[in-house]
Design goal:
With 412 residues, the chain is of the alpha/beta class. The chain contains 13 helices and 15 strands. It has helices at 84-88, 92-108, 123-132, 163-176, 204-216, 229-236, 250-259, 268-271, 276-280, 284-305, 322-331, 336-342, 345-350, and strands at 12-18, 27-35, 38-44, 56-66, 68-73, 111-116, 140-143, 182-185, 221-225, 241-244, 262-265, 310-313, 368-371, 385-390, 393-396. Bound molecules: zinc ion.
């Protein structure tokens, strides 16, 4: 039984190759030392001796790198099932059960941290805290709770917020209930039939209100925005990360570079055959938007990704497919090294978690994965994640019941 599995905590990891995410060259035959769930040292085996009696995770024939950071997902949605908003409207218990299964898949595929970009009933707060307490396995979660959207906007599930005052109230209530960050829907989206990708739902004063409230709470705003005035306003008003960005012009990207706005790429949900195509492809209005988005992204993203704009990646609910996101970056001309950084250090920076995460430098949390193969040579090797360690504890690995809980709390 997974519940009875011992906590598998390690003080050292032997690495065939170590890619630490700091920008340093990969090191062959390396060792990572771990203390209190954090990296104590990392370097060549010859100069990083393992203390006698230390519990060692042997990955001498593996490529070891920081745990992956999914900068944009939802925990309860499976896009291939269709009608994502309808999925969000289900009752909380089925939601929680589906989310538990989804998060296991993400964790086993190497995602150790995930930014959750809208859930209902504060499910994401409960799941974040349950994972943190060791009740269920899963990536470390950073949560947005309810999306801030307008009455007629994309992403509306139950609540909507019109005008600066309602937005301020919505953002403040989200924080009171446990949100870490703010998600605002600034344009239409692909998976809802009634909105266009450039439809701008919020005005400048509304976006500004969200940014001010987030800022006051020591947080930031992430904006769902594909293109057009909603994207422009979001960048101008100081939104920290732009999600999707499918129809951004070169001018928009230029302004993002100037304002140091992060671009969060989410390719798999509309490019992978098991995404929106499988779930909602029978709806002609959605399929038309999907095809148009694919065409534009294939044409524009190789240019955007080479422009100097800062970028990271998210699966947008395509659980377990973060490696596909990184493969797509490479297909669009990004070097495998930069793709790995987008999935680790840059993701941490975009989510403002880089004080703790994203590299295997001393002091950072010991979140790491081992891969069978060399993703710097062939990025598809990332599909073969064999070990997942979070806070120095083995979460998934050969011979382990998938993602055994690592600690137990009887009552919460
Ligand atoms: Zn999303």
């Amino acid at each position: 039984m997974a519940d009875d599995a011992p906590a598998l905590t390690f003080q050292a990891v032997r690495c065939g190759t170590l890619f630490d995410g700091t920008g340093a060259e990969p090191v062959r035959d390396a060792v990572i030392l771990i203390g209190d769930g954090r990296v104590a040292a990392a370097g060549p085996a010859a100069s990083t001796p393992i203390p006698p009696g230390a519990a060692v995770l042997d990955c001498h024939d593996r490529f070891v790198m920081p745990g992956l950071i999914d900068a944009h997902s939802h925990i309860s949605i499976v896009p291939g099932l269709g009608d994502q908003i309808g999925q969000l409207r289900q009752r909380p218990v089925p939601q929680a059960l589906r989310a538990t299964a989804n998060l296991r898949r993400d964790l086993a595929a190497g995602t150790t941290t995930m930014r959750v970009m809208t859930e209902v009933d504060f499910l994401d707060v409960e799941m974040r805290d349950a994972i943190g307490a060791g009740v269920i396995p899963g990536p470390r979660l950073v949560v947005a709770t309810r999306g801030i959207t307008s009455s007629n906007g994309h992403g509306r599930v139950h609540d909507s917020f019109d005008g600066p005052d309602e937005i301020r109230r919505g953002v403040r209530e989200n924080f009171r209930r446990g949100a870490d960050i703010v998600k605002i829907f600034a344009t239409g989206g692909v998976s809802s039939p009634g909105t266009t990708l450039k439809a701008s739902v919020y005005g400048r004063d509304e976006i500004r209100a969200a940014v001010e409230e987030a800022d006051r709470a020591g947080s930031y705003v992430a904006a769902h925005a594909h293109g057009g005035p909603g994207l422009r306003l979001s960048i101008e008003e100081g939104v920290a990360t732009i999600e999707h960005c499918g129809l951004a012009t070169d001018d928009d990207i230029g302004l993002m570079i100037e304002k140091r706005t992060w671009l969060i790429c989410t390719f798999s949900i509309f490019m992978h055959a098991t995404g929106i195509e499988q779930g909602d492809g029978r709806e002609p209005a959605i399929m038309d938007k999907l095809r148009a988005a694919r065409r534009v992204v294939e044409e524009a993203f190789p240019r955007h990704l080479a422009s100097g704009v800062r970028f990271a990646v998210g699966t947008d609910s395509m659980h377990g497919l973060l490696p596909f996101e990184l493969e797509t970056l490479v297909r669009f001309g990004v070097s495998p090294r930069d793709a790995l950084l987008a999935g680790t250090r840059w993701g941490a920076e975009a989510c403002r978690l880089d004080g703790d995460l994203g590299t295997l430098a001393p002091g950072k949390r010991a979140d790491l994965i081992a891969v069978d193969g060399d993703p710097l040579r062939d990025i598809r090797a990332l599909q073969r994640v064999t070990h997942v360690v979070k806070d120095g504890q083995l979460q998934a690995g050969p011979g382990l019941a998938l993602c055994a809980p690592t600690t137990r709390r009887d009552e919460r």
